Amino acid sequence: MTHEEHHAAKTLGIGKAIAVLTSGGDAQGMNAAVRAVVRVGIFTGARVFFVHEGYQGLVDGGDNIREATWESVSMMLQLGGTVIGSARCKDFREREGRLRAAHNLVKRGITNLCVIGGDGSLTGADTFRSEWSDLLSDLQKAGKITAEEATKSSYLNIVGLVGSIDNDFCGTDMTIGTDSALHRIIEIVDAITTTAQSHQRTFVLEVMGRHCGYLALVTSLSCGADWVFIPECPPDDNWEEHLCRRLSETRTRGSRLNIIIVAEGAIDKTGKPISSEDIKNLVVKRLGYDTRVTVLGHVQRGGTPSAFDRILGSRMGVEAVMALLEGTPDTPACVVSLSGNQAVRLPLMECVQMTKDVTKAMNDRKFDEALKLRGRSFMNNWEVYKLLAHVRPPVSKGPSSIHTVAVMNVGAPAAGMNAAVRSTVRIGLIQGNRVLVVHDGFEGLAKGQIEEAGWSYVGGWTGQGGSKLGTKRTLPKKSFEQISANITKFNIQGLVIIGGFEAYTGGLELMEGRKLFDELCIPFVVIPATVSNNVPGSDFSVGTDTALNTICTTCDRIKQSAAGTKRRVFIIETMGGYCGYLATMAGLAAGADAAYIFEEPFTIRDLQANVEHLVHKMKTTVKRGLVLRNEKCNENYTTDFIFNLYSEEGKGIFDSRKNVLGHMQQGGSPTPFDRNFATKMGAKAMNWMSGKIKESYRNGRIFANTPDSGCVLGMRKRALVFQPVTELKEQTDFDHRIPKEQWWLKLRPILKILAKYEIDLDTSEHAHLEHISRKRSGEASV
């Protein structure tokens, strides 16, 4: 990326106009996208217009199409729904309506349209684009527009952002609003769980999603449901018997409740709908259990967007503006979306076609095909769900075939650790292994605080925060002798270590120790779990998403307080050690003016620039500031120092307050993302472990001495991968306990632009137009 191109972003939009509209069902995070489109559009020199009430506003014109300003999108970030309104529009479906819409755009010189909505809304946009030149010639013939206006607006660029809680759009991993809808559902499931346990009830919960089972599927993984009904995978013919057997088995294993999740589009193999009432009647008739139905309805669309949806909306908004302004008459209408953590551009009609193919496959009862078209991540969720929910725990076989695997937590507590332990233990048992749990990390391994875990030992652990096994930061090196003795005593043949940076350094020490102690020559795998997200080898750690949401909620409350008092700047200190992930992402999600982090060194001149920026901001209608500081970003510029500096420099203009968030960031119930991520990581780790133990079995004992028998399981871009700990050494800055390269640093410019800094937008993170490959199940999957 050359220096010239840098400056190109600032002038890219000069003389252009962009209109943004939200259409179809609302979804949390749409406002974040609108805000980003407006601010980045203005940053590039373009004029940006709101279209109120979706396509209806586009057709009606007049006051529905208004120019947006920087301040007009302030405080939008934390609001659910869509502030500019959405409506189902019949008029736009008719050519006459589209003619009026074209007229309204041409008169204002708008040739770029950003549509945020579901597949219907995006298809409408594509039709509009393909007819554009015909519509213009009709308008010109009718004398409604001049020849000059027609030439100026000769082509229309369209970019779509998928806003839909259903996550039913092919080609996108996550649509805007899906994560927030899961947050609402899980809050309710957690609340229902407590009352169900009190009365030993069975609950049938019906969730939204139209013809897509994503919400239902992820919910059932995240709450350990007994059964899930989704349209893509109808149950087998004798499902009634199977379901009742499964429910009574759960009860006999000591559980006091049953949870059944039903997607609103659930059907059986013949295509007949299965309703929540049908299921309730079945359970009552056959088993006589006290059964209740809860239909969640529109609650799922409501409430504040989650941190993930705000960041997703903001990143997609930025990408949409870039795609529009770089568009030519020959670029197809595209959708910007996220694949793994990469922004991608996909041809809109390919995605729409594939989405229609799923519906067709389901109508033709080709359910396997439908499942494949939904993509890798969906299939993977389904596989893990089937394993955890549908396999009977085995009766123990003869001692020869059984292997013993131990599971432990290391480092500081992180939400989701328990979910990872649960799935590791249960998948281990399903494979016929003996599973031990170790309390208090490596210290417990040395002291022999080890016990065997059965199926119900980890029952109900998915939704519990913290670490139930207990966790310590102690490293193994100084107690190798005791650890070796216990490995022999308990016949441990594999270790699953769930934890943060110490889990990784502990793994490196175990590798070193293999030279001295044969007992340490057993396979081990590290599952990254820490709020700091600083484990080498993984883009995400279990627990980070929960911490991010906690920080976000607090910042929202603080912003509200600041908005009331006016002229107030808050300085908030976040955790993360030397890793600036939490501060940066929370800054993006909460709309901060600055986020100070260790990875991006700052000087007194930067601090001065930030103060001047805030002084300037107090002259606008937005009279408040929010500044985040990572706890170890600079040893001299402490939170107190920055607070004192701001207080002195802001005298008479604004007053400052400071908040250190502290350990609340490690607590709380895990978010749906962390529950699901931890569950899948646990399952994947245990599958790997069983294979590695079999590979290392020689002359009646386990001997694993190769680098690939000690790995970190991490998420890299679009796949879960096992990487030998020794190979990750070069990628680690051990003094500061962070990876040398971190993917999220490239999101920092977005944070600054959205806070109105005149900086160069490095668009080197270019999302090129990709085509959706028909993803075959053979690919590595997340």
TrEMBL record:
Reactions that this protein is recorded to catalyse: beta-D-fructose 6-phosphate + ATP = beta-D-fructose 1,6-bisphosphate + ADP + H(+)
Catalytic site: D166 (proton acceptor)
Cell wall biogenesis/degradation is among the record's keywords: no
Molecular function GO terms recorded: 6-phosphofructokinase activity; AMP binding; ATP binding; fructose-6-phosphate binding; identical protein binding; metal ion binding; monosaccharide binding
Entry GO terms, CC: 6-phosphofructokinase complex; membrane
Signal peptide region: none
SUPFAM superfamilies from the UniProt entry: Phosphofructokinase
Record-annotated Phosphofructokinase domain positions: 18-323, 405-688
Co-factor requirement: Mg(2+)
Official protein name in the record: ATP-dependent 6-phosphofructokinase
HAMAP family referenced in this protein's UniProt entry, alphabetically: Phosphofructokinase_I_E (MF_03184)
UniProt similarity note: Belongs to the phosphofructokinase type A (PFKA) family. ATP-dependent PFK group I subfamily. Eukaryotic two domain clade "E" sub-subfamily. Belongs to the phosphofructokinase type A (PFKA) family. ATP-dependent PFK group I subfamily. Eukaryotic two domain clade 'E' sub-subfamily.
Subunit comment: Homo- and heterotetramers.
InterPro entries assigned to the protein according to its UniProt record, in alphabetical order: 6-Pfructokinase_euk (IPR009161), ATP_PFK (IPR022953), PFK_vert-type (IPR041914), Phosphofructokinase_CS (IPR015912), Phosphofructokinase_dom (IPR000023), PKF_sf (IPR035966)
Residues annotated for ATP binding in this entry: G25, R88, C89, G118, D119, G120, S121
Annotated residues for binding of substrate: S164, I165, D166, R201, M208, G209, R210, E264, R292, H298, V299, Q300, R301
Pathway: Carbohydrate degradation; glycolysis; D-glyceraldehyde 3-phosphate and glycerone phosphate from D-glucose: step 3/4
The EC number(s) this enzyme carries: 2.7.1.11
Activity regulation annotation text: Allosterically activated by ADP, AMP, or fructose 2,6-bisphosphate, and allosterically inhibited by ATP or citrate.
Entries under Gene3D superfamilies matching the protein: 3.40.50.450, Phosphofructokinase domain
Annotated stretches, region: N-terminal catalytic PFK domain 1: 1-390
Binding site for Mg(2+): D119
Alphabetical keyword list: Acetylation, Allosteric enzyme, ATP-binding, Cytoplasm, Glycolysis, Glycoprotein, Hydroxylation, Kinase, Magnesium, Metal-binding, Nucleotide-binding, Phosphoprotein, Transferase
Membrane-spanning intervals of the chain: none
Annotated beta-D-fructose 2,6-bisphosphate binding sites: 473, 530-534, 568, 575-577, 631, 657, 663-666, 737
Species classification: Eukaryota, Metazoa, Chordata, Craniata, Vertebrata
